[in-house]
Design a protein that fits this description.
Blueprint (H helix, E strand, L loop, with lengths): L1 E2 L8 E4 L2 E11 L7 E8 L5 E7 L3 E4 L2 E11 L3 E6 L5 E5 L14 E7 L5 E5 L3 E9 L12 E6 L4 E5 L7 E5 L4 E6 L2
Antiparallel strand pairs: 1-6, 2-3, 2-6, 3-4, 4-5, 7-8, 7-10, 8-9, 10-11, 12-13, 12-15, 13-14, 15-16
Length: about 190
């Protein structure tokens, strides 16, 4: 059992006969009335995101998890396949268990949360940022960099990211995986 003071991003909880992972949280202490915690939780089985408010001191049932490093192998259309780096066993997960699957490229090392009760994989955590190559975008216009204007660009994984106007095809960019946003251009 954990209380609301133990809530943090990535914590897995058993709630309403399902397992949820905390995506965002905010401790609120209003001037009048009791404190509470606002949370945004994602179901690890269905991928559904819900907002919930817990009063301060509320007891919650946590799920004991272990983290393991897995290498992303491939996507067969329905499942994403991963290989454990320690013992080379393979697992497959539905897209709902992944936070931002469009930013994963083959060979990427990710962290998989595994439920210790039944050894089932719960969710996949990508690194904080990934470096991807731009495969398609409109050409940049010289001198058009003074504003914060952006344009859509397709990266090597097939995902679309909004990038500044000076980014061209073939450039490598760093993408923040939590939000799926452009961070910076990477020089070789």
């Amino acid at each position: 059992m954990v209380t609301t003071s133990d809530i943090r991003n990535g914590l897995c909880l058993r709630y309403n006969n399902d397992i949820y992972k905390i995506v965002e949280f905010l401790h609120v202490k209003p001037g009048k009335g009791p404190a509470f915690v606002r949370t945004k939780m994602k179901s690890v089985t269905s991928g559904k995101v819900i907002d919930n408010t817990f009063s301060a001191g509320h007891k919650l049932e946590d799920v004991r998890v272990e983290t393991h490093k897995f290498q992303y192998l491939y996507n067969d259309g329905e499942f994403y396949h991963f290989m454990n780096e320690a013992d080379y066993t393979q697992i497959r997960l539905l897209e709902a268990a992944l936070d931002n699957p469009g930013l994963m490229k083959e060979g990427e090392v990710v962290t998989v949360l595994i439920n210790t009760e039944d050894n089932s994989p719960l969710s996949v955590d990508l690194p904080a940022s990934v470096v991807l190559e731009i495969t398609a975008t409109e050409p940049g216009v010289k001198g058009n960099t003074a504003t914060n204007a952006t344009k859509p660009a397709t990266v090597e994984t097939g995902a679309t990211v909004n990038v500044p106007l000076f980014i061209n095809e073939g450039d490598k960019i760093k993408v923040e995986t939590a939000k799926g946003t452009y961070k910076e251009r990477v020089k070789e």
